[in-house]
Amino acid sequence: MILQILFLIFPIYISGEFRQSFFETSNRSEGDKIILTAHGMGMDDANRVVIPVTNGHIPPLPCVTSNAGTHPHGSTFTKNNFHYTCKNGTAEVVACLADDGSVIQLGRTFVRSGMKHFCSIQGDTVSYKQESMCYENGMHYNVGDSFRNGSFKLTCRESGIYVEGCYMQNSFNDLLMSGESRIENGKRHECEIIGPGKVRYVVKMLGCNHEGQQYSTGQMWTHQHVRYQCKNDGTLLVLGCIDEGLFIELGRDLLMEGMVHRCYQVNTTVFYHKFACERSSLAECVSQSMHRRARRYAKRVVA
Where does the UniProt annotation place the signal sequence (predicted)? Predict the structure, then answer.
């Protein structure tokens, strides 16, 4: 008895996932037959398919696939994200399938629900992939795309839309990054981060507001013996204390004609203190004043 074995490999898409092996035998007692197994399987595989050959005629062959069953010639079937058709033993990809069942034709892209689906062909290989997209004001954007929405520069990222910064007022190109501020033309421009993923663009006229009054940059004024000046950034600068034309720098004490003048700060509050003292030195006057205050405080606590 003579046994002849012919090993045939049929081409297929998807990197040979459904490539098949065919074994043809010639045996006088059993007759001719073809044994089909999935790619990588031997002739004794339990899922093999045996096809008799009559008078040398080979019928259309089914597709024997690994983990996807056996499919007759001309039928279609689906596995993972691919749709196949069986052509005489060769399973060919005819389309890609999204997770929601949407069909993407070969070589095409498809956008739905913020996802971009690709069904690409390279040689004999079909690949499917999906990428996140961003949707803003009726437009879809790919990951990495930057675009403008009002005063903000936005970028599409894998995690969603990210605010890169703020465009300055009446400008097309000048950009403040998130958290940055800039002073121009008497105005402060702020691209303020107010929370995770939240940015606010604010334009403020330079100047200071103190006790309900507005002061311009550089302007000086006195309130309850304390001398202030408005800084460029809108904050207050305490210059010192003043009383009847006498100026005392902040943090300084002065003894003049039996009167002590003190200008000092406790935490964020500035105090001006004036009192008579007959001591010979400023240090003794200040020490005496502090002891008096301590005694008064102790009496209030006891009471």
Answer: 1-16
**How many structural domains is the chain composed of?**
3
Q: Which domain holds residue 71?
A: 6-129
Q: How confident is the model at residue 9 (pLDDT cuts 50, 70, 90)?
A: very low
Shared domain check, 113 and 24: yes
14 pLDDT higher than 70: no
Q: How many CB atoms lie within 10 A of CB 285?
A: 21
Instruction: Specify whether 265 is located in the same domain as 234.
Output: yes
CA distances, 282 to each of 51, 74, 266, 289 (Å): 118, 110, 20, 11
**Long-range CB contacts for residues 94-99, cutoff 8 Å, separation at least 24:** 95/119, 96/126, 96/128, 97/128, 98/130, 99/130
How many angstroms separate the CA atoms of 212 and 203, rounded? Answer: 20
Most confident of 23-27, 46-50, 137-141, 191-195: 191-195
Is residue 1 situated within a structural domain?
A: no
Residue-level pLDDT at 107: 87
- CB burial readout 87-111, b (16+ within 10 A) else e: bebbbbbbbbbbeeeeebeeeeebe
